[in-house]
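In response to reviewer comment 3 from the previous cycle, which asked for concrete evidence that the modeling workflow produces usable outputs, we include below a single protein chain processed end to end. The sequence was submitted unchanged, and the resulting structure tokens are shown without manual editing.
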Amino acid sequence: MANIIKITDINKPELDVFVRLTGAQLRNKLEPDKGIFIAESPTVISVALGSGCEPISMLTDERLLSGEGVPEIIERVGDIPIYTAERDTLKTLTGFELTRGALCAMKRPVPKSASELCRDAKRIAVLEAVTDSTNIGALFRSAAALGIDAVLITPTCCDPLCRRAIRVSMGTVFQVPWARIGDTPSDWPEKGLRLLSELGFKTAAMALRDDTVSIDDPRLQAEDRLAIILGTEGDGLSKSTIASCDYTVKIPMSHGVDSLNVAAAGAVAFWILGKR
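The workflow returned the following structure tokens.
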């Protein structure tokens, strides 16, 4: 039976998880097994549940208790607390309009190792220091849609389970296996690239340089295992990463355009270099 609780006091500590804890507090770096993430919208919550994520509590617009999407979610989450209020109260509480009126706090999945994740993979994406949550979410969505087997993120990347990244990805962060490649910034690129080599991957650094191969070079498609490495917004990949990769790959530009946004470049690279 649904455990629906009408909000009468927006300062209740039970609501802290939705509005008053920072991203770092939700991740709980000291005790990762106690980490939490927030899924937003019935669609994203449904994908997370379907991927095995465990719900803790929900926050929703009370008008949606009988609306589209939310009742089906409520049937799936068991007897967890479901906090409700009118839309204006929720906006006062959260400071923003809820996307389709629902948030769900969930336990973070147990982290996987890069080695475990890539054991049977043929095409993976490696994201170096991508810090914008929108770009992270868009890259995961493209990776899911275009058949990338796994995503690895360097230690300085944005958390894929931050609320905005999850929302932009439309929940694909729960469908594409991912892991951090290294625990500290010093683990990348040297240790990380060595691990990829040991796992049998050739590495393709995406960079706009003259000493490159074109993205449609047949040698790239012929590689059995390929890691597509994309760099941070603006600066792109570090020189040391580029110098250590097997290939430096360029997407040819027209009309004087100097580069693509990293999420757009990722989509192009995943489509052309993926195993199709």
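The chain has twelve helices and twelve strands. We consider this sufficient to address the reviewer's concern, and the full set will be provided in the supplementary archive.
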